[in-house]
Amino acid sequence: VGTQYIQLTGTSVAAPVVSGAAALYIESNPTVRPGQLKGVLLATTNHLAMTGTGAGYPDAARAIAYPGLLGNADHGLDPNNYLKVLYLAAHDLTT
Question: pTM for the whole thing?
Answer without folding.
Answer: 0.64
